[in-house]
Design goal:
By secondary structure, the chain is an all-alpha fold. It is built from 3 helices and no strands.
């Protein structure tokens, strides 16, 4: 399928995707993102690869 897996599988009509309200799990994750300082820390791809031992 190559690089177009998503569009070949699901198409490109994004308007046809049903929108759903967030559930408790989603709301909990959004709360963590807003209130947990550790969720605001970002590292480069290179640093993540080093930390995971993938380089």
């Amino acid at each position: 399928m190559g690089n177009n897996f998503i569009t070949q599988t699901f198409g490109t009509d994004w308007e046809s995707i049903a929108e759903t309200a967030p559930d408790g799990w989603d709301l909990s994750m959004l709360h963590e993102i807003k209130t947990n300082p550790e969720c605001q820390e970002f590292i480069s791809e290179e640093e993540a690869m080093r930390e995971l031992g993938l380089t």
